[in-house]
Structure prediction request, 362 residues.
Amino acid sequence: MKVIACTAPYGKGGLGQHLAQIVDDERAAGNLAHYFAASPKSGDDKGSVVEAPWLGRIIPYTPLRLRAAWKYYAHIEVFDRAVAKQLPKADEFSGFVGQALNSFRRARKLGYTTLELEAANSHVTNVMRLHSQALRQFPIGEDSWLDERQARKTINEYNEADIIYAASEYTRKTLLNEGIPDSKIRMRPLRVNPRFDRERPPKQDDTLRVVYVGSLTVMKGIPVLVEAFRKVSDPNAKLTLVGGWATRAMRQYLEKAMREDPRISVAPGDPQPHLLEATVCVHPTYEDGFAYAPMEALCFGVPVIVTEDTGMKEYVIEGKNGYIVPTGSVDAIYERLKSLGKNPTALDASPNAGFAFHGEKV
Prediction:
């Protein structure tokens, strides 16, 4: 029987969807002992809440508030230690990268036979390298959620895990490149929420509508996309960023961009209404082990532009349902947007073709 732990809420956000898939698959196989999350599925007696509300209250009054990496490390370390204290007796433990070292060591003492690690991102050294590239290219005042201390913890998890699950070939290759033996790695293809299992109505005009879905950070490539879009000369083109900023620096950067170019807007909330009208979904991230958002767009019938450092690029057929561009390249994204502006139907993403869905349709 297996115990699973993840800091995300069940089914919410990319990490939460990843968690939900594992929980539901293990439940269906009759192998789910228990799972720990920020919030479990409603009414699920197999799930327990792990939270530390006091941490959020003290952060504004401590040096933790000064660095994203400090806050992130504190959050996941508190979660990991809490899970370790509550582990029931079981055979297998499954944790997510960066969140599982204390739980791994406690599970070993309790006699667990198998420790599994879910690699939601590429190898941590690759993440650090690409985050550094992003912050050098766009020094707007943000910092990465990842630092050397967190990287060391993650590397220890790689070493202590019996099995590491990779959601993409991209992630698998980065693990191999850093010396993790192939015998330790398993593939776990991720599936998309079935609410994207539908056809869009035909577009009513040829307006170039560019949509991004996800968190608004430098590491996700937001400045790359914004600067590329601002080079597009079409006065009717629109860029909609569906997500929220987590830093003052990004808020100031985007507010300035929107003042200077009213074609740009930020729209937190459900991405579906925006994808219904989108010409293309652009995911300009510097690193993503998988990337749910552009995968959801493809399932919805929306073509995509993604970078070389995202796992879901493996689902892109170049020139048919999307384009793969060099990571961090403003010019490459601009050229693709310019060509789509001249020919909005140049790409054809057949909705749902070849993709698997997970969970209940809503």
